[in-house]
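REQUEST FORM: STRUCTURE PREDICTION
Request ID: SP-0412
Submitted by: Lab K.M.
Chain count: 1
Length (residues): 784
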Amino acid sequence: MHTQTIFELSQEAERLLQLALQNLDTLKSMPVAMLDSATAAISGGNNNVLPLHFSARGVDAQQAMLNNELRKITRLEMVLAIVGTMKAGKSTTINAIVGTEVLPNRNRPMTALPTLIRHTPGQKEPVLHFSHVVPIDALIQQLQQKLCNSDRGKLTRRLEIDKDMNALLERIEKGEAFEKHHLGAQPIFHCLKNLNDLVRLSQALGVDFPFTEYASIEHIPVIEVEFVHLAGMDPHLGQLTLLDTPGPNEAGQPHLQKMLSEQLARASAVLAVMDYTQLKSISDHEVRQAISAVGKSVPLYALVNKFDQKDRNSDDEEQVRAMISGTLMKGNISPGQIYPVSSMWAYLANRARFEMTANGCLPNHQEQRWVQDFAEAALGRRWRMADLDNAEHIRHAADLLWEDSLFEQPIRKLIYAAYANASLFALRSASHKLLNYAQNAREYLEFRYQGLTVAFEALELNIARLEEDMALLQTRQNVVSDEVQHEVSQALCATDYSIAQQKLWLQTSIEHVFSNGNILDLAGIDSRDLRHKAEEGLQQLVLEDEGQAQIVLSKIRSSCELIMLDAQSKISRELALRFDQLESTLARSLNEAMRPIETRIKEQLSHAGFRARISFPAFQANQLNFNTRALFNDAIAMDNRPAGQPSAAGSVRETVSRWLNNPGWGWEDYVETRTRYVIDVGQLHDKFKQHIDQFCEQIRKALAAQVDVSVTAGMATFFAEFSLCLTGLQESLRDSLAVRQQNEHSTRALSQLLKQSITTATWIQEDTRLLRDDIQTLFAAEQP
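STATUS: Completed
RESULT:
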């Protein structure tokens, strides 16, 4: 590592950050009050549209972001934000990265506040520092007053009260202050549980939790511990810190989406933890939206957790990488930065290896539940107590489990690299954010400055024209909505036709499976043997041996399963193609409808002497993804037990019942276990045909509902962003008009201030480009 060069670059980054913060202070002295009211009117409280860059709220947000970068530069700290839904396995993943348990795992949400986990060499036992506890203590006093006047019985009905919550309620009633330091895993767990329970309790009692007090990263809890995988490595310039962020679906708190976006924007890089079993769920989509929004300025990585749950029909590693990179993340992340893993296996393997190294044996499995989980994962379901006494066997099993977890690759390629290049990650993060600031500041300031140089009448005229354009925007929105609905209707009709074709193919294929000749062939019966023919065709198959009946039924099931899997693959490919086309068509329709307004505005402002840049939002329509695989998986159950084993009769009945998605189909109607065994082939065939009909109808309804929700949400965001952009232009002109109506001295003073600020923003932009290029050169030199 080029220590002297890093030091010089960090000094330059610090200088530019200080300069940008001073420039923002200058901007705050300019009249921008109207921008705030306009932003609030358009974005509203529940909209995800961000505030204007240079409204008062926008300036405050940019100052907070730059101050955070300044803090990271001072420490040369690389902050890797870990983001994921509640059940994706964030805490388990962080424990696997750290190498020991520093975050608790509970079925309910555990990340009430963002939490930093900082690699601290030599700190074997984790310690949590929570210095900014004053807002929590004030909250406890509010809750104490509320509890005095509340009915404990009603509270119990509204809130799950376990022993942890009871202990917290007692502390609140006594008015005990929140402790600032916690040493050891259990005290840390207790602290984080208390924070989470305070969020739940506040919600139940109607008291606002002080989330805004923890918007600054320096105010959130910090856990210091040595990462096991980095222990003993040569020290590097800079620090590596993980940031555990609340998932957008945690604790039923709508504000968490905004908090998540703010924290990600301040990170040096983002690691998304995705649930392999829920890759296209709504909550998983919210996470993808949040990380895509910061993807241009922050490096993105992804761990696809629970990959141990894949079966032989699931996508393999390369297919998962390609699907996430292309379909789910729209190219915002490269396949090489996506790692399918099992965080639970990695955590259990780490924990076992740590215990074996430290103590030579595992703890009592009855006292520590993770030992049972490890034994089942590493030794199999039939593990015995004696297995745990063989130290060499346990070490070998832990190593194999670590290998099977596939966690070695992200540790080496991401965590080692992040640790070795922490200072460069911190510098690159600062340079990207500085460039974004400088570009936006120059455009805004130049527009404001131009507003002081054009004729007074031109200002009034352009303000009036913008009002007309905003009215035209509303009209065009209504027209486009009709066009979009037409495109959606056509896409759904085409999809209905495709599903109908597949349904016909399914019915034909199933007819063949249940045909007389095929059933007799599966049973190994000569069709010329009249004893096995039914009274009306082959409606019943009569066999003398129960084992043979089970084998025949298994063959029928396997044949149908192959047909359904083939149909699943065809429909999935067809839907992916059609809805990629739909998304492109809708984006083109919106752009074409809005382009005349955009062109007209630019021409009008250009004639008046302005140079306006309108950032046209991209229409994503929530990416229009459809979980067709899950619909099929509900219809098919795999049974790998060999036919004919003593308990097979019951399990075959159970398997086929689940396979038909109809637990009450009544096996006794098909097989009679007396002196002969009868399979009612005709009734089984009818049940399966009904299942196909129900499935096709189900998928049609699910698609229609998903498209409606996705398109409505996507269009609402698109037009809100475009309208907000126009409002920003209009209010900037009004600010200029307001200044022009003052005396000439005020106009000249503001003009001079704007010119100085433009010059400063230009210097920042040019110097930051040079800084970024130097950092990129160092990054390239550090690559193996």
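NOTES: The longest helix spans residues 546-607.
Reviewed by: T.R.
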